[in-house]
């Protein structure tokens, strides 16, 4: 009898989001990636581009939601958003206003996450949209990418290659990584 391989759908899409995060890493951006999926079809993918666009708001989720809401649909109830790191307050707000149906993310962001870490706006009863939420998909890989990125940056900063530029304050993966240089 032939073995039947059943792929975990969430892992499949999250791995695509991780590929986006790797692209960000290659571009010296904070390695966070995301994909937008509808009816098991990939609609869009993106990664953080705050440096390239010189725009502190150019988060992976925001880039996709902005584009699709502007060009195609006002509300995205039938879309699933996969993102490697817990969304921030801005992106969580966008998830509510765009009415994204499902949010799947990898690792929590203890310093800036708005889906349980610092705030939990998606479960706030004050709002009238509450997406389904799944966390921890490919968590270790997502976390490792971020940790390695900041470790490398710290080494380069100690060596005088890069200046402290405030990026660390925007992402919560530095405080657990040993002493500050
Ligand atoms: Zn964000």
Question: What does the model show?
Answer:
The protein has helices spanning 9-26, 60-71, 89-97, 139-158, 167-170, and strands spanning 33-38, 41-47, 79-85, 102-107, 132-135. By secondary structure, the protein is of the alpha/beta class. A five-stranded mixed β-sheet has the order 2-1-3-4-5. Helix 1 runs parallel beside helix 4 (139-158). The model is unreliable at 174-181 (pLDDT under 50). Bound molecules: zinc ion (ZN).
Write the layout of secondary structure elements.
Blueprint: H1 9-26, E1 33-38, E2 41-47, H2 60-71, E3 79-85, H3 89-97, E4 102-107, E5 132-135, H4 139-158, H5 167-170
Helix pairs in contact: 1-4
Residues 59, 61-62, 87-88, 90-91 line the site of zinc ion (ZN).
How do the SSEs run, as a string of H and E? HEEHEHEEHH
Helix content: 25-40%
For the record, give the distance between the C-alpha atoms at the N and C termini, rounded to a whole number: 58 Å
Strand content: 15-25%
Overall average pLDDT: 88
Number of helices: 5
Strand arrangement in the largest pleated sheet: 2-1-3-4-5
Name the features.
181 residues; alpha/beta; globular; disordered C terminus; binds zinc ion
Compact summary:
This protein is of the alpha/beta class and 181 residues long. The chain is built from 5 helices and 5 strands. Helix 1 (9-26) runs parallel beside helix 4.
